């Protein structure tokens, strides 16, 4: 009974008392069984705390006594699974199931191993079988819930967690069974584990101390060097919960350690773990409404590349089974300012009648004023601004790592068109550090008013712009919580109205290190490289140009640094990067999409030259290298259990101007939020933000 209730200290004392007494044969068998089950339990608890070396040392005597018993072998298998060796876990587990196919503990253990190996169908089959065999076993229910949650099936996981909690049993949300034979400690020297085992000591105890006592005592010894008690010191590895440095010289049954232990009730810990998981699932599946406002502006040339973009996105997101659906409404207001006199020949252009009128003057040696009048150069180009409302529907399938959306760029703009995309982002398998991603999309290019909404030259009535980028991207990444690497590549076709088609190729790679990584703080630094190439220079604003940044070669290398921190109510992230960027842009004609118009312009330019004036017909290329930088900050604060206030700010330099972005949002969740804030914070952004595409 004491063992079932988790009173490990009392069991330990009882075992010591019985060890000193003469026992009958029947009593000795009961004693041996109790010691065996108690030993396996302590090994499991040590595994759950992350110290696989100590867990194996504790389990070794039990394995030696009963090398084929599923209880001890299952505990060893759980250690292999915790160490990421799913193949070994499955290998050990198969013979156990062959002998006892109707054992629910074995079935749920195999389910967990198959889930982490990426065999979701096999895991589901084994989990369903375990639930069929033990529908009222809280441990089985909680373990199955963990499997389904890892697969993104939160609705079923929530149901199982609720049933497990209702049973009020001392379940573990994270139990995994498999097996093996006793040999040298296989976890020594593994990532995050100690470099030395205690199996080589002369007299290992037959009655291991309670796991909580060992953990508390070892944690206390972490401070021993500062107190001059270095003879038995251990350095706590806070990343994996293991221990480095010197091996312990005390036996496992050293009663002096009981004085420093403050063990917690393992059953209560399990119930809290299940309740926390259930709360998180409810929060993840909660309907929510988010209203935001974002502002983007730059210091570029008025009427051309300058833009002030104000957006007020609204999102209503609802659960649909294990998936989510979202309705997005985004009013957008753009203002590029007025076209100045110095820029009038670099915006829009003359229509056919104006061009013909200018050509008709060529035989009479016209002066510049006559030509300007004929071409309509001196007239007002009109204030460049537009407003519209974008609509979209998004759908997310966490089980598969899939996201999709379909909508319209802001209706009310000069040009509005269908936009959307589909993407996948997931690990290769449940316990893998490798991830892959792929996406196909058609997105509005929002660099300028011309590219985003389209523009009209009031002098001629010419309309052009409204550019979209259609294509795909692939990416790979590796992250083991100590360092990460990534690489990506993509290709897009850019098309617009009365705009020359273009092609963009992009690629990048990088590496980063976690300088600090715990539950409440995270600091990373790395090195990133980006390369982009456009087929044509479309970064201008005369008729036929798209008005978006499009260098023929762009290369940057930077040193990114990121800092994140969270409390129970606040989470914030600061990111920045500084480095070098190199830009090459080809010379480009004024009217790249109309050869006849370009030829006429070049002919008329000769008349300007003859009159002592100039009319430029081509944009010059450029080749320059300079400092590139960017900085971003985001924060989210929990006002109450249902309301969250967030904000973001960013700045960067692009080409020959600086850009600033900022935003605020308020989110309401229908379910109470009782957990910790997410870290790093993921601020709510407009669907048209370049960071959200």
How would you describe this protein?
The protein has about 700 residues and is of the alpha+beta class. Among the domains are: about 210-235 and about 245-260, no CATH class; about 285-340 and about 380-585 and about 620-670, Porin, CATH 2.40.160. Helices cover about 30% and strands about 35% of the residues. The strands form three sheets. The protein has an 18-stranded antiparallel sheet that branches. Helix 3 packs antiparallel against helix 4 (about 50-65) and helix 7 (about 105-115) runs antiparallel to helix 8. The longest helix is centred in the N-terminal third of the chain and has 24 residues, at about 25-50. It is elongated. It starts with a helix and ends in a 24-residue tail after the last strand.
Question: What is the compact description of this entry?
Answer:
Helices cover 29% and strands 33% of the residues.
